[in-house]
Amino acid sequence: MKINLAKSAGFCFGVKKAITTALETAKSEKSVFMLGDIVHNEEVVRQIRETGIKKIRRLSSGECKTLLIRAHGCSRHTLEQALKLGYRIIDATCPMVKEIHKIARKLENQDYRIIIIGDKRHDEVMGIVGQLKSKAMVIDKLQNMPLGKIKKIAKAGIVVQSTQNLDNVLAILELLRKYIPKIAFHNTICNPTRIKQNEAKAMPLENSVMIIIGSKTSANTKRIYEISKSLNPNSYWVNSAKEIKKSWLDNAKSVGITAGASTPESSIKDVIAKIKTICPA
Questions:
Q1: 3-state class of 140 per DSSP?
Q2: Domain count of the fold of the chain
Q3: Do the Cβ atoms of 18 and 38 come closer than 8 Å?
């Protein structure tokens, strides 16, 4: 059986940068804290925890403490509060997410009503919302669009969560255009996400089985899995090699493997090794 690994499988630039920043900060600073996890992956979270960086739920006195801003970013209020409390700030926000912040603020300053296409409770989306003075509208699915409120908007500035599915975004945008007279749309899906999703549209058609590796808390991994599953029913989403079942590979001529942007290389290697054990060459 042939094993085909996606070229884009695993860490994207933003995740690599955030993890490198976290590891370097742990070496140079004594008391480092984060409001949540650096990225959405249990193995990476464990690695970061072992460096001594502590996860907290709320800010307290920041004297002699460092606050590491996660890859997903944070709100302006969080940043201002941390500085007032005395924290030293080290920002590991993905540069592409920071660009979304910049675009959203610029649109707001131009008097656009901001609409964010993304997952309502996702950390990245909440960080974008928290950049703005006015309340943004967040739309996740075509079925969940508040048409009553949308019809009242005359001028909308639209940005997108960096890991969204483009097909979902375009469907929402098409409906918004029917009701809002003036729209400034910025497709802020990041390039690594586009590449991963394009591979996820091709590989399921070229392989008997698809294995998608990543945490169940990872939005971008979820999107890859959904695309793959829609094209090949023999698509399976695993967090680790332990979850792979032999029955998935029975009679398979080839298996395609891809992984979310926060999935470490070690997890990918473990999955490949497990498949080779089940189906030796």
A1: coil
A2: 3
A3: yes
CA distance 208 to 215: 23
Q: Could you report the per-residue pLDDT of 51-93, keeping only the tens digit for each?
A: 999 999 999 999 999 999 999 999 999 999 999 999 999 999 9
Q: Which residue intervals of 112-253 are DSSP H helices?
A: 123-129, 147-150, 166-179, 191-206, 219-231, 246-249
* pLDDT above 70 (res 265): yes
Bridge-partner residues for 256, per DSSP?
4, 210
* pTM flag (> 0.85): yes
Q: Which of 50, 99, 124, 174 is catalytic?
A: 124
Range(s) of the domain holding residue 87: 13-93
SS3 160: strand
| DSSP classification of residue 112 | P
Give the pair of three-digit tokens for residue 62: 């920041």
Residues 103-113 have a mean pLDDT of 98
Of the pLDDT bands very low, low, confident and very high (cuts 50, 70, 90), residue 216 is: very high
* 124 noted as active-site residue: yes
Residue 278 burial (C-beta neighbours within 10 Å; 0-12, 13-18, 19+): middle
CA pair distance 159, 83, nearest whole angstrom: 28
**In terms of domains, do 77 and 115 share one?**
no
Residues 58 and 30: beta-carbon distance below 8 Å: no
Confidence of residue 225 (pLDDT cuts 50, 70, 90): very high
- φ, ψ for residue 228, nearest 5 deg: -60, -45
SS3 89: strand
The domain boundary, picked from 146, 164, 185, lies at 185
Tens-place pLDDT, residues 88-101: 999 999 999 999 99
101 plus 175 within the same structural domain: yes
Average pLDDT over residues 160-178: 97
